[in-house]
Amino acid sequence: MEDKLIRGKVIADEIIAELREEVSSLKEKSGKVPGLAVVLIGEDPASQVYVNSKEKMANSLGYHSVKIVLPLDSSQEAVLAVVEELNNDPAIHGILVQSPPPPQIDEEQIILNINPQKDVDGFHPSNVGLVFTGAKDGFPPCTPWGCLELLKRSKVETKGKHAVIVGRSNIVGKPMASLMIQKGVDSTVTICHSRTADLGAEIRRADIVIAAVGIPEFITGDMVSEGTVVIDVGINRVDDETRPRGYRLCGDVDFESVAPKASLITPVPGGVGPMTIAMLMSNTLLAFKRIENIG
Ligand SMILES: NC(=O)C1=CN([C@@H]2O[C@H](COP(=O)(O)OP(=O)(O)OC[C@H]3O[C@@H](n4cnc5c(N)ncnc54)[C@H](OP(=O)(O)O)[C@@H]3O)[C@@H](O)[C@H]2O)C=CC1
Ligand SMILES: Nc1nc(=O)c2c([nH]1)NC[C@@H]1CN(c3ccc(C(=O)N[C@@H](CCC(=O)O)C(=O)O)cc3)C=[N+]21
Fold first, then answer.
1. Is any atom of ligand 2 closer than 6 Å to the C-beta of 235?
2. What are its E.C. numbers (predicted)?
3. Which fold would CATH assign to domain 142-273?
């Protein structure tokens, strides 16, 4: 089983080490460092975990890192004002507003107001379009990009392979499809969602499955063919009284029944999650180099 694991945490650490070298050499050259601002509205415990690990990683790379926590009942105008301030702050190169925001906030409008040059999440329509058209100067969204990087660094052949993506969100499913059909990646893609007629039949035809459903252990062994490469994007908290925190983390894939059939599989935790953070750091460095015109 051990040799089937795609160790996202280990690969993410390699990427971070590569970034660390580049950051320090650019700092020496320019006297400047990348700046990342993360905006969190409310104090959802799971979101806090991610935001804190982003901040910790940014600090460990020597980035200028800012965390802004706004009250849960913040108005649209208050959030927009913070975004505007960060757009105009020359020490900030990357802006991330943690998703999902509380219901009174119009997320689409917030994203539209982030300077696309600082949109390190890759959520602004201008970046979505640049990535979709295969232009070089967008920001690939961190989670799908992290999944692709896992496949590349695990030497998984994508060319001519059938990738089945389960989920069509703007954060994961859709941009994942957009990356998998790029020239050079060259997969044939099927996108599934809650209205897909026979999900098992679609997944059984896959060489590569990418699961982003948001339902704990939803994809089971009977839905997967022998030899499939399985990338589990899901991060779910499931109550578990036997754990010190009272919950355990699991993916959207039922690891126990799927792993015996998979040729390669990502674990949760330690799979896609750490890659998302590594790609965010990479995009922030990219934004820094573009804005400061160095590197
Ligand atoms: N590792 C990481 O860094 C990240 C992990 N995540 C995790 O990934 C998962 C997905 O996140 P996200 O894309 O934001 O979630 P969303 O809830 O936005 O999207 C879920 C998708 O799954 C589809 N779906 C729901 N039920 C079914 C079903 N029964 N059969 C087939 N498809 C179904 C939905 O279909 P429909 O559109 O029809 O409703 C939707 O397209 C979550 O577990 C989340 O925590 C998310 C972001 C980053
Ligand atoms: N604007 C925005 N951008 C995002 O990229 C974004 C977001 N909003 N909202 C929430 C999702 C989720 N997400 C994760 C990042 C890292 C881990 C991660 O590092 N997970 C660890 C475990 C962490 C733990 O112990 O809870 C792992 O899987 O090994 C998980 C999830 C980013 N997201």
1. yes
2. 1.5.1.5, 3.5.4.9
3. Rossmann fold (3.40.50)
Q: What CATH architecture does domain 30-117 belong to?
A: 3-Layer(aba) Sandwich (3.40)
> How many C-beta neighbours within 10 Å does residue 295 have?
14
Instruction: Give the start-to-end residue ranges of the domains of the chain.
Output: 30-117, 142-273
pLDDT, tens digit (0-9, with 9 covering 90-100), for 223-280: 999 999 999 999 999 999 999 999 999 999 999 999 999 999 999 999 999 999 999 9
Decide whether 30-117 matches 142-273 in CATH topology: yes
Question: pLDDT tens across 127-140, in order?
Answer: 999 999 999 899 99
Residues within a 6 A CB radius of ligand 1: 143, 166-169, 171-173, 192-196, 199, 212-215, 233-236, 252, 272-273, 276
Decide: 167 and 193 in contact? Cβ < 8 Å: yes
What ipTM, to 2 d.p.?
A: 0.98
